[in-house]
Write a structure and sequence with these properties.
The complex is a heterodimer of chains A (about 325) and B (about 200). Chain A is an alpha+beta fold and about 325 residues long. Chain A has helices spanning about 5-35, 125-135, 135-155, 160-180; strands spanning about 35-40, 55-60, 70-75, 80-90, 95-100, 110-115, 115-125, 185, 190-195, 195-200, 215, 225-230, 240-245, 255-260, 270-275, 285-295, 300-310, 320-325. An 8-stranded mixed sheet of chain A has the order 6-5-4-3-7-2-1-8. Chain A has a 5-stranded antiparallel sheet with strand order 14-13-16-17-18, with no helix packed on it. Chain A has a 3-stranded antiparallel sheet with strand order 11-12-15, with no helix packed on it. In chain A, a hairpin with an 8-residue loop joins strand 11 (about 215) and strand 12 (about 225-230). The longest helix of chain A is centred in the first third of the chain and has 31 residues, at about 5-35. Chain B has about 200 residues and is α+β, with helices and mostly antiparallel strands. Chain B has 2 domains: about 1-45; about 60-200, Jelly Rolls (Sandwich). Helices cover about 20% and strands about 40% of the residues of chain B. Chain B has 3 helices and 12 strands; from the N terminus they run ααββββαββββββββ. Chain B has a 5-stranded antiparallel sheet, with no helix packed on it. The longest helix of chain B is centred in the first third of the chain and has 24 residues, at about 20-45. The two termini of chain B are about 55 Å apart. The model of chain B is unreliable at about 1-5 and about 40-50 (pLDDT under 50). Classes of the chains: A alpha+beta (about 325), B alpha+beta (about 200). At the A-B interface, helix 1, helix 2, helix 3, helix 4 and strand 9 of A face helix 2, strand 1, strand 2, strand 4 and strand 11 of B.
Chain lengths: ~325, ~200
């Protein structure tokens, strides 16, 4: 055997042996110590763990977690997410985690409730690319060829254990992978971004009611309220205060007053005035109406004034209230 | 035999002998890689197979903005909510675009918040791909409910945006009749569009 061949043989055996031992050790470590290698498939944890990095995570109970830890958890969709803890609320044996990627300016939209989490303790840059490539069909074929070559080198051509060993190795690997006990995972360290728009909303300035419409209605009998004032209601926050004055605006004497409950638009507020006993005769009256806030009964704007007068009922002995100056 | 081999092949740890141990150990590579590869294909139904490593940056942008961070449109001019009387409806179109660097697909949500009693009274309707007709949003796909409370609105927009794609969101704000909101009331209304990268 030439020196070059020997060096090549030794190199291959060493590389294969070390890689194989690492693989077996990582499988063993995963099972024995709950260690999970994580491949970062996206870059929101860069520069600590860039896309393609391999992180080594160790499962710990929620009580061991602290703000600043990088943890790998499953989101509501079952997708594995690895971000840094920015907020933590202990909730019995569980913890409510707020996570944010280092490269993200905003935290993940929803908190994660966990009882355990895989805390990332170590990161190896670019190793994820290697693992991903190794796990590809091409990588598997390459690994199979390498192992076949090494078995042939180690045990010699024609050794009957070689094909059997190769087949059982492949079967073991596929079996482990299919059973889901392989302690490894791809993790999305997904990016987030946000944008917002603000708008200022306002309601109109307080409006007092419009000038009431006055209609004179002749009824029958005495003391009927016949001068009817109507205006459109302003909604539940506005009540109306009224005063009936006897005399000529703005003087005279206060005759009666009251408050009307709020009315929603477009329904009208109705206020009716008639003659009370002893109120007869040709006289001037006027009605003032204020819009008031229900909240504190304060006046809004200026009152409206509607002129009224009392006069004799046509064809009758009685006195009535009419719209206008008379 | 080990000492003999080491004499022939130069100095190295004797317990590795002729290389059989290393050859056997190398089989562990196939076990490991096989397990990893199989679980990748098996457990994720192919979605992880050949996973793409995405490097770059995610950018969700509003209107004509290009990769603005942090992004806030103050007093969004399209939507006027001033002087809202009971029963008033206002609507505007918001363009939401994925202007990411690198091949990043994104999903996003529409959130809305509003302060004060006026804000508590406002209702919202969001339609993806909707249009404005008579001051209200029509057509498109309803995001969340129609005329639901604006403050606290938080709904996922069902469709993903690939890089370079955009949505027109029709956003309608209504002050219900008989709202009971006093005159001269104000509210700071904020629409937030949090995005996350999707594989």
């Amino acid at each position: 055997m030439s020196a070059a061949k020997r060096v090549a043989r030794e190199t291959l055996l060493w590389v294969g042996g070390v890689l194989g031992a690492l693989c077996l050790l990582s499988l063993l470590a995963g099972w024995l110590f709950q260690v999970t290698p994580l491949v970062f498939s996206s870059g929101s944890m860069s520069p600590a763990y860039a896309a393609g990095a391999l992180g080594i995570a160790h499962e710990v109970p929620a009580s061991d977690l602290a703000v600043g830890d990088v943890v790998s958890v499953l989101d509501a969709q079952g997708q594995r997410v690895t971000h840094r803890i920015t907020g933590l609320d202990a909730d019995g044996g569980a913890a409510v985690l707020t996570l944010r990627g280092d490269a993200n300016e905003v935290a993940d939209a929803h908190p994660y409730v966990v009882e355990t989490a895989d805390r990332v303790v170590l990161g190896v840059p670019y190793a994820g690319y290697v693992l991903n490539a190794a796990a590809s069909p091409f990588g598997l074929v390459a690994a199979a060829l390498l192992v076949l070559a090494l078995l042939l080198i180690g045990f010699g051509r024609g050794h009957r254990l070689v094909p059997v060993g190769l087949a059982s190795t492949v079967a073991l690997g596929v079996g482990l992978g299919a059973s889901g006990v392989t302690p490894w995972a791809f993790t999305s360290a997904y990016w987030t971004d946000t944008a917002d728009a603000t708008v200022r909303a306002t309601t109109p300035a307080p409006g007092s009611h419009q000038q009431p419409v006055c209609t004179s209605n002749e009824g029958s009998g005495q003391n009927k309220a016949e001068a009817k004032l109507t205006w459109t209601g302003l909604g539940p926050q506005y009540e109306f205060h009224w005063e009936l004055w006897k005399g000529t605006s703005p003087g005279g004497s206060l005759y009666s007053s009251g408050t009307l409950n709020p009315v929603n638009p477009p329904t009208s507020v109705t206020l009716m005035f008639g003659i009370v006993s002893g109120g007869g005769g040709n006289d001037s009256y006027y009605a003032k109406v204020w819009t008031r806030l229900v909240s504190d009964h304060s006046n809004v704007g200026s009152p409206t004034t509607t002129l009224l007068h009392s006069g004799p009922r046509p064809n009758g002995p009685n006195w009535w209230m009419y719209c206008g100056q008379g | 035999m080990a000492r003999q081999a080491s004499r022939h092949r130069g100095p190295r740890p004797g317990w590795f002998g002729r290389g059989r141990t290393r050859a056997l150990l190398s089989a562990g590579l196939l076990v490991g890689v096989g397990a990893v590869g199989t679980s990748a294909y098996w457990t994720d139904g192919g979605t992880v197979a050949g996973v793409g490593f995405s490097t770059g940056a995610l950018h969700i942008d509003l209107e004509n903005n290009q990769q603005v961070k942090p992004e806030t449109i103050t007093d969004w001019p399209e939507l006027s909510l001033t002087g809202m009387a009971d029963g008033d409806t206002r609507a505007a179109l918001m363009t939401v675009a994925n202007n990411s660097v690198g091949d990043a697909k994104l999903s996003y949500r529409v959130q809305a918040a509003a302060t004060n009693p006026l804000g508590a009274a406002l209702s919202i309707t969001v339609r993806r791909g909707g249009t404005i007709s008579s001051g209200a949003c029509v057509n498109g796909t309803l995001v969340g409910g129609a005329n639901v409370s604006l403050d606290g609105f938080d709904e996922a927009v069902g469709a993903h945006l690939a890089r370079g794609q955009s949505h027109n969101l029709c956003i309608q704000v209504r002050l219900p009749s008989s709202s009971g909101v006093s005159a001269n009331a104000t509210s700071a209304v904020t629409f937030t569009f949090p995005a996350r990268q999707e594989q």
